[in-house]
Amino acid sequence: MTTTSIIRQLTASMNDTLSAFKLSERDLKRTYRKGGWTIREVLIHIADCETVFVDRVRRIIAEERPLLMPFDENSWITNFGGKNRDFVTTAMLFEVNRMTLIETLSVSYTKHQKRVGVHAAMGLVTLHDQVTKVITHTEHHNAQISKALRSR
Q1: At 117, is the secondary structure helix, strand, or coil?
Q2: Where are the beta strands (DSSP E) in 60-152?
Q3: What is the CA radius of gyration of the chain?
Q4: What pLDDT band is residue 20 in, cutting at 50, 70 and 90?
Q5: pLDDT tens digit sequence for 109-130
């Protein structure tokens, strides 16, 4: 993966996600499967993960073999206000973190893509691995949002 292709993919998925933040209240209540998260909850999850991903990427670049901790995504949704979180602030959190990630990778990816962090559950993780995770994670959840909207 080249830096250019990474930036292109991160920008495209950012734009798709930001568009979803503008959906109607009715659409935000839709789910991609019975018993699954609502679109609102998926978007909150994406924003929470982006915070974690930016931290991991920046520490892999800046530190020598940093420890990368897992997090409990359900606890984050529950304990940070869940459905009652300010949605505008959540969208801004996602956008600022994604822009930070894009800026960081645009200047550092090529030089540091083989640097590693140590994930407490998964072991060694290269910068390349973490960036791939960011891209596939967002695309996966954006596909869930699209599926929920198709079931109108």
Answers
A1: strand
A2: 67-68, 116-119, 123-126
A3: 16
A4: very high
A5: 999 999 999 999 999 999 999 9
Evaluated on CA atoms 45, 50, 56, 59, the torsion sign reads: negative
Residues in Cβ contact with 119 at an 8 Å cutoff, skipping those fewer than 6 apart:
68, 69, 70, 125
- DSSP E strands in the chain: the ranges are 67-68, 116-119, 123-126
pLDDT for 77: 80
Q: Say if CB 127 and CB 61 are below 8 A apart.
A: yes
Four-residue CA torsion sign, 26, 98, 95, 72: positive
Mean pLDDT of 134-139: 97
Whole-angstrom Cα distance, residue 39 to residue 41? 5
Contact 48, 80 (CB under 8 A): yes
Give the pLDDT score at 97.
98
